[in-house]
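ok here's Peroxin-3:
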Amino acid sequence: MMQSTRNWLRRNRTNFAIGAGVLGTAYLAGQYALGKFSEARQRMSEERIAKENLRRRFEQNQEDCTFTVLAILPTATEKILDAIPVEQVLEELQRQKAERLARSVGPSEIASSAPPSVVDTTEDGTRSESVQTSAESYVHASQAALEREPRTVAGETSTEATGDRDKARASRKSKAQLWNEMKIGSITRAFTLLYTISLLTLLTRIQLNLLGRRNYLASVVSLASPPPADSASRIKLENNDDDNLEQAYGNDFETNRRYLSLSWWLLHRGCIDLIERVRGAVEDVFGLLNPREEITIEKLSELTLQVRKRVEGATEEERRTRKWLTYLLPPTDQEDFVLAESGMTSSSQSTSPTTTTSLRRLIDETSDIIDSPAFTSVLTRLLDASFSHLIDVKISQLSYKIPPISADSARVTEIVGEGVKAKVANSLAVFSRQAHNIGTGANNDYLEKIEGVGELEAFAAVVYSSNFEFESPALGAEGATGATAVDTKELTALKDEVKEEIEKAEESFESAWDKAVAK
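and the structure:
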């Protein structure tokens, strides 16, 4: 029996060897496949975590941009309001009207008969308390005018008082001059603030997204860097709180502070230069318009568009070549002045070569982005949204009393608003009040409209992902050594994440140019 079994095994040993080989190969192939599957699943999990981390960082960065704009916008608003004091012109108009009333009627009749020169209404259509205040100011002004009349003492008139009054009248602006100054000033101020908030939004997006990119790459390098040999025997305390400013944008905190402080130029100098540019366009378009004239909202929109064409460019080529860099960043020879004025440096403090090189790289990249066609096209879309909100919503509702447009009553609203006219003076009052709303640092509906433009987020994604392969954050010697071991998985995830946004941005840019040319 045993011999027959051995003989059978000997005869079939080849088959057994082949079967064992097949089973072994199958087992090894199965193990290899399971290993590859586990590796792929691990890689997919890591990529998903990297994308979620990237998306979270990016979204947080955009929220930071919004809060930053709201925090620093009042600085530019104050500069613009001081440069164009429309309220002082209005007070002078009211004072002159009160004096005319004082000369024509008695003091007791002025309080009951003198209306305010510009009726102030709230956004819900009700008259505000400024009407009563204006009436009281007329009474006070008329009484002061009566007190300044030449007094007769023993049949003689004070020649000195009469001479002073004549000199004051000679130096005083006429009513037509004051109305024209108020017309140009109120429109210029509102339009300048729209340009300022749009430019400030774009500048802030560029700055914080460039620094956000450096922060992201710094974290990748930090994770990829090998720990020191004696790290196991040491306890390392890290401050990961939100107030840890040194980790906000990598370790080069001083360079980041100086880079962000360059927005001082737009807030203090650029906005003033914008005033002159916008004022010239407003004078050309609105200069001959009589404040008492009645025009339609369509006519006002057409005049506004003419102003924009003079400021931004009337053709596609003019828009593409229009340069905004001089309003956003200081010239090279003024950078030290800006850093000193913003409190970053003192006159006796020198900038280290490392900081200078890093800061120069950020400034140069920012300048290239601002001079790119993408910047001007996105700016066009932001201005479309802000100007539309001012003219088609605020002026339309408050001055022309056109009801808000809704999806159900769009056609009815169009028919009701067609041909409706209002005096230019009524619109000037709304322009004057809206200037304060445009530049406010809280509950700013104009900034909300700007933030709602889809091309803005796409533009931010392009900035966030641009040149990240060549970025070398200043992380010290240890970080520089670890930079060669950057986790390429996260960098690949970054590129894949923004690829779709870049394609959307390019399509949006072309659409923006088409609409700009169509206008």
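+1. The first helix runs from residue 2 to 11.
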